[in-house]
Design goal:
mainly alpha, disordered N terminus
Length: 224
């Protein structure tokens, strides 16, 4: 009987001693299990943030570089081109019209269009010729200006994307990418200003030679 009572008491002591320990261990395991998903959840937004930053930066840089390469393939020194074109207008205006087809989206476009408009008048009257060549030059010149304005607008958006990527996740690589994109955007802005300037100068310096080529009868118009 004494042994049974002692066993019962010993069992109660073990039970009351072990239960708190087991409870604490279970609580710690539960907290550890909750902490692991929380850590994964914290890592997931960071990964998405990095992907977004790199995607914006490199996509913006690619667009800007593509536009810069496009302008480099169309680089034209205005003074040399003007002298060559004026010489052709004074010697062989028909060849000057062909020359204007060699560099699209430049001041060559409105000059070439003015030559075609002047040829359609079929007269040597300077007043009639001017009513055809001047409006045509202005219209095509505006088209060229709008073309480059649209490309610069795309470059601005691409530059903002590149800078935004560097702002989302600052790093040496993304900052360099943003600087290169901004430098390319500045180049495109300068190029557009140069295009606008050459179109204005061409109207003042070359368009009168176009009219003169028709007035003097140097432009050959095939018989109809």
């Amino acid at each position: 009987m004494k042994r049974a009572v002692l066993g019962y008491v010993f069992g109660l002591v073990v039970c009351f001693t072990a239960c708190p320990i087991v409870e604490v261990a279970a609580q710690e395991a539960s907290e550890a299990g909750e902490a692991a998903p929380a850590a994964k959840e914290a890592e997931s937004p960071s990964t998405m943030k990095s992907l977004l930053a790199y995607g914006l930066s490199f996509a913006g840089l690619a667009v800007v570089l593509a536009l810069v390469i496009h302008t480099l393939s169309k680089t034209l020194k205005y003074d040399q081109a003007r002298n060559a074109l004026v010489h052709l207008l004074r010697t062989n205006p028909n060849q000057a019209e062909l020359q204007c087809q060699t560099l699209p989206n430049s001041f060559y476009d409105p000059i070439g269009a003015a030559l075609k408009a002047g040829a359609m008048t079929g007269t040597q009257d300077p007043a009639v010729i001017a009513t055809a060549t001047v409006p045509t030059f202005d219209a095509i010149g505006s088209v060229v200006i709008q073309h480059w304005k649209g490309l610069v607008g795309k470059a601005k958006l691409a530059g903002v994307a590149a800078v935004g990527g560097a702002a989302i996740k600052p790093s040496i690589l993304l900052i360099v990418v943003a600087v290169v994109a901004v430098a390319g955007l500045i180049w495109l802005l300068i190029y557009k200003v140069e295009i606008d300037r050459t179109i204005f100068r061409a109207k003042v310096e070359i368009l009168p030679e176009v009219d003169r080529a028709f007035v003097d009868g140097r432009y050959y118009i095939p018989p109809r």
